[in-house]
């Protein structure tokens, strides 16, 4: 036999395309050629595979070796094809005898001594492999992650172990990982925050409806602490959602199994680039907004982000996904995240405070706040000015509700939404909102004109009102629910700069 065919996978976004690894040995001067649009790491497989074969006790054929990674127009990166290439050479050179690999897929990078190393993006590969009804051969370090999908997983440490399995000399047992742990409390307890009753109320509303939130206030008011408590108020991920999140993180760095059901919490620094936030690269990888899928994206010091970086948030906030276009391909990553942002009202942070303010009450604050565009602010559902904490509340003994108590109310609100409309209130369409605004049409029209609200802002306020009604266990959206929701649409800094 001078030809061998094995199967592997190339991650493409959160999907993984099948790659046919074909090996052909021909007479002639010794040569080793890899074709099929591979990057530098793929082309360097020649040297890794040659050393791994020799150091594992096999013979490297002194013939003309051609490796084809098909389809040829699919970009391929990394060392994930090393194992399939090495086995293809062994099969084509008759060193393993007659073996059957039709029901197996291979993913693993080889060390020079034949050790099998883990690769990134194994979870999308495992999901695709399961759909193809094949088993997956991976390195031991990838086995727990791959087996989360339910695919039959085989794990090995060395190339020679894989060869012994294929020949039947030492079959590898199927790998089964321990079930992921249930969610534990994330980010501390809400009761640790003293005072700030209004901020806690708006945090509960945001959690109950999946709404985006912008907090503005002086330094030390507790904005970052409030944001870090939001994940602890959200119900744990469902199994399907947890697999989606784990598949995205697998493309960068696998998630700890202890965090499997926890909602991700991402807090990138304000110096982050647009690529870091959205994703990209020659072989596009997910950015922070996709890594926050089904979780929370916290942007502290919001005006300090480059304005062009912030503007890339506008489309994902509307659509729940981000598209990255490259010359050869266009990839779409999911980005259904919950945005929580925090900012100071002005550069010094004490706008309106007669004792601490820098004195440039209007102009500096206006320039600072103008770094945030109107269209971006329009897409944030809830706006709140967070005052400094009162000294008596800070030093007093009174504690507020715990995260567990608030989380139970949030869970009940989520259950009402899923039973009524099979989605959260933040995802309600304009057609879904029509019955809610019909009884209040004239009043809402006058409020819209008086406050200068856009149609988008009004619709977002109605969605928030629906959430407030759910927390109050009300089937109907009342005028009081709408009033409260609209009170959270004021422009940040408006109250203190007026």
TrEMBL record:
NCBIfam families per the UniProt record, alphabetical: YifB family Mg chelatase-like AAA ATPase
Cross-referenced Pfam families: ChlI (PF13541), Mg_chelatase (PF01078), Mg_chelatase_C (PF13335)
PANTHER family per the UniProt record, alphabetical: COMPETENCE PROTEIN COMM, MAGNESIUM-CHELATASE SUBUNIT CHLI
Molecular function terms from GO: ATP binding; DNA binding
Q: Whose protein is this, by species?
A: Alcanivorax nanhaiticus
Entries under PROSITE patterns matching the protein:
MCM_2
Name of the protein this chain belongs to:
Magnesium chelatase-like protein
Where do the MCM C-terminal AAA(+) ATPase domain residues begin and end?
287-382
Family membership: Belongs to the Mg-chelatase subunits D/I family. ComM subfamily.
Alphabetically ordered keywords of this record: ATP-binding, Nucleotide-binding
